[in-house]
Design goal:
The chain is α/β, with parallel strands linked by helices. The protein has two domains: 83 residues, Gyrase A, domain 2 (2-Layer Sandwich); 174 residues, Rossmann fold, CATH 3.40.50.360. It contains eight helices and ten strands. The strands form two sheets. Strands 5, 6, 7, 8, 9 and 10 form a six-stranded parallel sheet that branches. The protein has a four-stranded antiparallel sheet with strand order 1-2-4-3. The longest helix is centred in the last third of the chain and has 31 residues. The radius of gyration is 21 Å and the shape is globular. It starts with 14 loop residues before the first helix and ends with a helix. The relative contact order is 0.14.
Length: 289
């Protein structure tokens, strides 16, 4: 397996050899993978102990053709890490065994918000190959000021951008206030201009009853286009949620609504997988012999 074409490496593999290598990894991990973890700079893979020798063989081959990537082999476990764009290349290499990580952001600070209930429900449903995380720090963000977007960032801004960077995709759910986005949510979006959402797959759920929040979501689309995101229209949905649909635990139990939320998460994750596959295909096409 080779690196992303954005990383300058010398690779001795032909495109055919590269496909064979990927096939060998696919066979090993498809039958013997025990655990996969993302770690700073890359990924850690563990296989069944009886497959440790096969793992060691593949790791040695990777060391020959990918000197830009550091590998630490410990029996049936290997950790691959790299700096800079190398981390993304490693994640692309092993995309098939990685969950799609979706960050969930409610645009409301209101207690009892149906938008926040929708986000909590999205975190509670089970979608194969998808893991979710709710961002909780919107109310702690300082007022956006470009002069403050410097290296010594406010801790709340650092937290936001760190969670965005760790996510493969972002799902928003926001109300409309006075014909536009709520100020606190727009403030959050302003802080993403300096980093966090560029080229990231995003979508939203409009949970407003009836045909409401049209202006807010038109504004959201404009902001997300300006910040260079990959808007996944197939995952953007209007799923009306009434207060009566929200249980005492703050989660929606109605099967139809939960099913539609699952569909949104599935469509967003599918887009992430498509883009990963496209990057891998580009690697094969640009392999240097």
């Amino acid at each position: 397996m080779a690196a992303s074409p954005t990383i300058p490496i010398a690779c001795s593999l032909t495109a055919e050899d590269l496909q064979d290598r990927e096939g060998a990894w696919r066979k090993l991990l498809g039958t013997s993978l025990v655990e996969v973890q993302r770690v700073p700079g890359g990924i850690r893979l563990s296989v069944h102990r009886e497959s440790a020798r096969a793992l060691g063989t593949l790791v040695a081959l990777e060391q020959e053709c990918c000197p830009w990537m550091q590998s630490l082999l410990d029996g049936p476990t290997v950790t691959f890490t790299a700096s800079g764009d190398g981390e993304a290349a490693i994640l692309d290499m092993f995309a098939e065994v990685l969950d799609c990580r979706i960050l969930l952001i409610s645009g409301s600070l209101r207690i009892g918000s149906t938008n926040s209930a929708t986000v909590r429900t999205a975190a509670s449903v089970i979608v194969a190959g998808v893991s979710t995380e709710i961002f909780e720090g919107m109310g702690e963000l300082p007022h956006f000021n470009p002069d403050d977007d410097i290296e010594a960032l406010h801790p709340a801004v650092t937290h936001l951008r760190t969670r965005l960077a760790a996510a493969d995709a972002v799902l928003f759910c926001t109300p409309e206030y006075a014909g536009a986005l709520p100020g606190s949510f727009k403030n959050l979006l302003d802080w993403t201009v300096g980093g966090g959402t560029y080229d990231k797959s995003v979508a939203w759920i409009n949970a407003s009853a009836g045909s409401g929040a049209v202006d807010a979501h038109a504004s959201l689309r404009t902001v997300l286009e300006r910040t260079g995101t990959d808007i996944v229209d197939a995952a953007c949905a209007h799923i009306p949620v009434t207060r009566q649909a929200v249980g005492t635990d703050g989660v929606i139990e109605e099967a139809v609504i939960r099913g539609r939320i699952e569909d949104v998460l599935g469509a967003l994750a599918e887009r992430v997988r498509e883009r990963r596959a496209a990057r891998v295909a580009q690697k094969v096409a640009t392999t240097v012999v």
